[in-house]
Amino acid sequence: MKRKAKTKAAKVPITWKEIKRQKFLIICSLIFVIYGIIFYYVPLGGWLMAFENYKPRTGLLGSKFVGLDKFKFLFSDATFIRVIRNTLAMGVINLVATFVMAILFAILLNEIRFGFGKKLVQTISYLPHFLSWIIVTGILHDALSNSGVVNELLMNMGIVDRAVNFFANKSFFWPIVAFANVWKETGWNAIIYLAAITSIDPSLYEAAAIDGAGRWAKIKNITLPSIKPTIMILLLMNIGNVLNAGFEVQYLLGNGLVKKVSETIDIYVLTWGISQNDYSLGTAAGIFKSVVAIILIVIANQVAKRSGEQRLF
Amino acid sequence: MKRTKMKTKWPDKVFVVCNTLFMIAFVVITLYPVLNTVAISFNDGVDAVRGGIHLWPRKFVLKNYDTVLHQQNMITGAYISVARTVIGTLLALVANALLAYIVSRKRFLFRSQLSLFWVLTMYVNGGLIPVLLVYRSLGLTNSFWVYVIPGMISAFNMLVLRTYMEGLPESLAESAQIDGAGDFTIFSKIISPLCKPVYATVALFVAVGQWNSWFDAMIYNRMKPEYTTLQYELMKLLSSVMQQSGSATNMASAGQAATVTPVSVRAAATVVTMLPIICLYPFLQRYFVTGLTIGGVKE
Q1: Among A7, A8, A239, B3, which has the highest number of CB atoms less than 10 A from its own CB?
Q2: What are the pLDDT digits (tens) for B102-135?
């Protein structure tokens, strides 16, 4: 990467004179490092809890060491297996749905020739990103409730005769979560693609027009190939986040009736760690998630390297 | 992009019509639920249970807002939400900018080590329980500071700022250095004024995150109603709506007659909570668009 090359070129030897000159920088970095250690690296020491029967009274160093017992329990727990499945399934569905919608929206919006309309649609499209998940799940809950607009439409069109209780049916939960993510993030995620599309050389389109290419042909042969690198890098960046996409919506919209499909690893950690006070088990589940996430990121990075795309780190 | 001079062929016309329809549908789906919530918030609670309210209230009342604005926890939540947004944004901006400045100095001896130290934090974290124990031992739980101190530095924001600073001409800092300016002077008097646009971007990201977060209030300050936030209060209203969906209940705490329901009160609270953001974000578009492009392309 360019950055690394520059660093090497400007390598300054460590001398007392130089250290004295950079006093301010060094002291400030030291403060930042101490802060970082406390808030990011010390909690990693808490991972020890997963290998012992942690009791707050005996503390981290005094609690009984139990090896991999907690992990054995996790993998023999049918709930945990189901929770992994839910997290992965919803993570992948959300990733695909939000990606496809953002790219589609960016390409189609770019085709709008009426400048004011384009600007207006784009401004409106950002709005949901700025609303909290509390608000988004709340209005989604209203829209899908028995007297909500979706049921009203379905009944008026004669598709159903009685209101559908969307939140009581397991097969609706994953699509609802995917829709919530698409609704909230499409406009926001499209920003990067729109920026990439704007930087395409207009002469390419002009040449294609002279060859008699229609809109579809131009999208297929010019726009899509041009934004492919952007799509690839964003896809790779987001693969590591697949497991992180499973908390707020599921926590806020889930209920006893759909628990089997709505619970994710994060919710499992919350249930065991905070509500049941089993810190060791909660931590073990958290570690599992982190390790899988890191593996996914490393794989993504390798794939990026192989395919000649820009690496992530 | 230039309009092509050629005569539009009919498949292109079909495309334009479909595309316009798609955009209209997109706008309706995006705006309708928000406007519907606004309409419900101005409608009589019991009447709203019947359904059929779309973009305009049927039985106009202000009682929902009256209820919301007279609840002590909502008022406390509003104060705390504003305080955490202002203080949290200022702290985060200063800290991230200073860190980015240090990492952007080409001559700095520990530049790559410091950079790696922070980039790693994007990929590894202790997880909920270990983090909770650390905060507890630092005395951050049951306090206001848990909202603004732990999340102060974010590697992502730092990288956005650094990329911008690295794009500034090096000669500026160099000539100031020759004139005898120290690093703090260069940071505050020369680099920072030039970074105003990217500072605005990062401030916006942090402020929205602060305003919208609710999980920290629920986990770390559950026992402290004096540190509740608007979003957490809204979350409590949401769960009460889900439990007793559609039933008109007496909101005893507000001393109101049974004309407000959890649904209508929640709608009013939602409008109050999203109003500041809706009023502000259209004017800040320029900033978040540039910020996202820097962050997305470079890292």
Answers
A1: A239
A2: 999 988 989 989 999 998 888 888 889 999 999 9
Which range of residues forms the domain containing residue A200? 77-306
Q: Would you say residue A19 lies in a domain?
A: no
Query: How far away is chain A from the Cα of B238, in angstroms, using its nearest Cα?
Result: 6
**Structure confidence at residue A190 (pLDDT):** 93
pLDDT digits (tens, 9 = 90+) for A91-134: 999 999 999 999 999 999 998 888 899 999 999 999 999 999 99
Residue A252 to residue B235, Cβ atoms within 8 A: yes
Choose the closest CB to A10 out of B4, B33, B107.
Answer: B107
Compute the count of residue pairs across chains A and B with CB atoms less than 8 Å apart: 265
Chain B nearest CA to A184, separation (Å)? 9
Residue A29 belongs to a domain = no
A210 to A213, A214, B4, B226, B288: CA distances (angstroms): 7, 10, 9, 68, 37
Residue showing tokens 């539009």: B8
* CATH number of the domain within which B103 lies: 1.10.3720.10
Question: Looking at residue A93, which CATH number applies to its domain?
Answer: 1.10.3720.10
Q: What is the count of structural domains for chain A?
A: 1
Task: List Cβ neighbours of A96 (8 Å cut-off, separation of 6 or more).
Answer: none
Report how far residue A163's alpha carbon sits from residue A151's, in angstroms, rounded to the nearest whole number.
Answer: 6
